[in-house]
Amino acid sequence: MRKGLLLTAASVALASSLTACGGSSSSDSDSGSGSGSDAKPKIGVILPDSKSSARWETADRKYLSEAFKAAGVEYDIQNAQGDKQEFQTIADQMITSGVNVLVIVNLDSGTGKAVLDKAKGQGVATIDYDRLTLGGSAQYYVSFDNTAVGKLQGEGLSKCLSDMKAKKPIVATLNGSPTDNNATLFAEGYNGVLDPQYKSGDYVKGPDQSVPDWDNAQAGTIFEQMLTSEPKIGGVLAANDGLGNAAIAVLRKQNRNGEVPVTGQDATVQGLQNILAGDQCMTVYKAVKKEADATARLAISLAKGEKGETNATVEDPEGKREVPSVLETPVAIYKDNVKDVVDDGFVTKEELCTGKYAALCAKAGIK
Q: Low complexity bias located where (predicted)?
């Protein structure tokens, strides 16, 4: 894998409680009272899809919309639904409509770069949201410390294997999409934890494969093939909750769910339910509201012609440049602190504690 971003700022100290990734292709646009000038701030946001993670529509759209409305700025949020051509079309429409700032979550760096360069050429300020566009020209980047996310996943799997007193477990890895630089950073984080375990012989390195486009259906097929080639897999490092659930579904067919610890990321309802049921050992909560609010503040400042505030710098290894950034801190979630995600308002008790999960929620202190 290519080298990912290098955190170069000393300060990445934003308090974080906890989040990570789906929705419709409809746009969400609104205008507020504005600033009263002729050049009224207008912000465009392009989300990537609704397939790779539920967060894009259930969390990011919601929080960004709320922040823009509260600030009284005009905005347009659209979802490209994984279509690169549609991504570019949306960007063209937003630039033509007069956005002052364009915020994108790229589908890949090539498409993202083309859009960012076009926006720059039209004098539109740009922000990479959640994923850095390698070789791109975004003026700012807002995300989480994604290497730290991967480190939490590696440490989480190690903790769960230790708790189970696993002896030389074979560990399978379901990496994220090879076109997503975040997946590269996650892998740097968890491989930094697991590689020494492989070297010492405490763990055995098993099948290791990336999942194109974070596609959960493909992840299920890939994991079935992994189990066929190595039936004694004893642990699964899955890069997000969707991939983790795909592995759990396969394990369930063999009545091995709960016996093989599986990681995740994004603190989705499904992932948290799997943790409560004992089928998933942990997830990583990235407080999307913090990320969205930081992005909204930055975008609003830029739209008004003001300088944005940052707390870090990351290096774009392909563009050979340092990008002013805002980075939030991820948090590991296990069964004993699932309650924290509910208390934080990221998911509700009503959506999490349905049916058979009601009793599990009560046991976990979610009331």
A: 19-38
